[in-house]
Amino acid sequence: MWKRKLTISRTRASRRHSLAPAEKTEVLSEDLLQVEKRLELVKQVSHSTHKKLTACLQGQQGVEVDKKSVRSPSKKLPLTTLAQCMVEGSAVLGDDSLLGKMLKLCGDTQDKLAQELITFELTIERDVVEPLYDLAEVEIPNIQKQRKHLAKLVLDMDSARTRYFQSTKSSGLSSNIQPTGAKADHLREEMEEAANRMEICRDQLSADMYNFVAKEIDYASYFQTMIEAQAEYHRKSLELLQSVLPQIKAQQESWVEKPCYGKPLEDHLALSGRDIAFPIEACVTMLLECGMQEEGLFRIAPSASKLKKLKASLDCGVLDVQEYSADPHAIAGALKSYLRELPEPLMTLDLYNDWIQASNIQDQDKRLQALLGACEKLPPANGNNFK
Q1: Cα–Cα distance measured from residue 150 to residue 204, given in angstroms and rounded to the nearest whole number
Q2: pLDDT of 177 above 70
């Protein structure tokens, strides 16, 4: 932390001291030399932070980042482009498709997020980026420029004083006796004017340097503003996302055309409003009509391409019975695949021991009763589909 020091400012030298020989004049006092070092460090840090922060702003992509204000109205945020693409895609697919509805809803959400991001970046640019630029490229350089000007005035004053005392020596007078004459008066006036200009510049520079030290809390507040703006942006974005999520879930849940393979039995039945899973009902019905006399049913593997096509047809709820009636092995394979891909077996994991114990009973009647007892323990959805 910068520690302030109370220093006694130099008073302007009296004419008697101005006329006395002196050593080379110091440009800055010790405490101001410390401020000068601080100036250069703050300038470097501010310039680097400004450059990196500007590069983080999405609205600045492809724009020269060394300029003070780099926002270009013609630049589009990536989120804006994404939102436009989604909305256009939803128009192509139409509102009668789930994907079209999702694209429209998410596209509108991305557009709102983009607006929040634009507001956030404008705030950051106005309250952080531009002040940092002014600090690094205007305020501190002006002080440093004034510092160089003071150094020149000090040299001018020392030169004028040297000329004056050289004229004193050449006249053969004692250093305590002021020379007289037009030339001496001119040299003395020149020296006093140079000293006056130097003191005015030094006073102004000292005031600017001390003001810089006093305003460090203002410079630090830029970063507090940045964090506050980020917090506000993320809070609003989160509220926006949380408000749209229920709508997205409602659209998903209301859509009845959902895959059934690999999905929990209860979910499929609830979404489709059925008591019997569509693949089980369709496959069993077709097998009863055309497959009961087929040799090797459920044993002979069907054509892989035919099985894949049938499963896809069952998944989307579109099935051409006539096409598959001549291939009962594909129908049996689709039924086996559905039962195999259920997240939980149709006969449930909880009743595994019951099924094993029942199958190990030697007496046929008792085994049948045990199997029926296990069936009665099945959940209603599983029991209906098992029967």
Answers
A1: 10
A2: no
Position 179 scores a pLDDT of 52
* Per-residue pLDDT at 281 exceeds 50: yes
Integer Cα distance of 242 and 329 in angstroms: 49
pTM of the model: 0.63
Full domain range(s) for residue 185: 16-252
Long-range Cβ pairs for the range 289-292 (8 Å, 24+): 289/325, 290/325, 290/326, 290/328, 291/328, 291/331, 291/332
DSSP states of 190-254 as a string? HHHHHHHHHHHHHHHHHHHHHHHHHTHHHHHHHHHHHHHHHHHHHHHHHHHHHHHHHHHHHHHHH
Question: Do 366 and 308 have their domain in common?
Answer: no
Same domain for 171 and 36: yes
Contacts of 121 (CB under 8 A, 6+ apart): 57, 58, 59, 71
In a domain, 2, yes or no: no
Q: Is residue 276 part of a domain?
A: yes
The verdict on 63 and 106 lying in the same domain is yes
Indicate the residue type of 292: M
- Span of 16-20, 270-274, 315-319 with lowest mean pLDDT: 16-20
Half-sphere exposure of 284 (CA within 13 A, CB side): 11
Residue 302's nearest CA partner among 267, 331, 345 is 331
Does residue 5 lie in a domain region?
Answer: no
User: Residue 132: what pLDDT?
Assistant: 94
Q: What is the pLDDT of residues 208-252, one digit of tens each?
A: 999 999 999 999 999 999 999 999 999 999 999 999 999 988 887
User: Do residues 310 and 292 touch, judged by C-beta distance below 8 A?
Assistant: no
Quote the tokens at residue 37. 């070092």
The label of the residue with tokens 């997240």 reads: 343
Domains of the chain: total: 3
Tokens of 216: 């460090």
